[in-house]
Amino acid sequence: MRITKRTNIAVRLLMYCAANADRLVTKTETAECCNISENHLAQVINQLSQLGYLNTQRGRNGGMSLGRAAGEIRIGDVFRDLEGSLPMVECFADVDNTCPLVDACRLKQALAAAAEAFYASLDDLTLSSLVCDNAALLQILQPVGCTR
After folding, report:
1. Nearest to 108 by CA among 86, 85, 87, 79
2. H or E segment and range at residue 66
3. Helix axes 75-83, 107-123, angle to 10 degrees
4. Which residues contact 129 (CB under 8 A, 6 or more apart)?
5. Residue 141 in contact with residue 16, Cβ under 8 Å?
6. What percent of the chain has pLDDT over 70?
7. HSE-up of residue 82 (Cα within 13 Å, Cβ side)
8. Could you tell me which of 88, 143, 144 has the C-alpha nearest to residue 112?
9. To 10 degrees, the CA torsion angle through 78, 82, 88, 94?
10. CA 41 – CA 115 distance, rounded (Å)
């Protein structure tokens, strides 16, 4: 299973916001610190805002912050919301499925179970559990250390 770039960026962004929860963070500083293209980041910010993971404020003094407490954001939910129902293999797709084995193949069921186990294992993680008491991560995610 391969995680999309969008989900990777989303988790970095959420961790950055959690590490800097005492203030609004900007897209520019986040992009610099987390080594993310501002264009990709803008798309992810928009999606996370629509999903309620982020609050955004426009304007000169604008920025973003977590839309709910870090302890309430389950990483499994973030992955599900961003990865959506992307087909892992062709037989998962309702449209354009040309596999002749689909009616008899047991691999589809095994892959579906494996994907659910993957997401279930992420359900035990909250954003808070990734950031809290992680001094090394907090040091990396401070704006001062973001002069890469």
Report:
1. 87
2. strand 63-66
3. 140
4. none
5. yes
6. 89
7. 27
8. 88
9. 120
10. 26
Helix (H, G, I), strand (E, B) or coil at 53: coil
* Residue 24 backbone class (left: φ over 0; alpha: ψ -120 to 50; beta: rest): beta
Length of the chain: 148
| Encoded tokens for 55 | 């609050």
Q: What is the pLDDT of residues 81-139, one digit of tens each?
A: 998 765 566 666 667 778 888 788 888 888 888 888 888 999 999 999 999 988 889 88
Tokens representing 145 are 């250390």
Q: Which residue has the tokens 């991560």?
A: 137
Total domain count for the chain? 1
For 117, the domain range is 5-145
24: amino acid identity, one letter: L
User: What end-to-end distance do the CA atoms of the chain give, in Å?
Assistant: 31
Where residue 117 sits, what CATH number does that domain have? Answer: 1.10.10.10
Question: Which tokens hold the place of 147?
Answer: 């002069």
pTM > 0.85: no
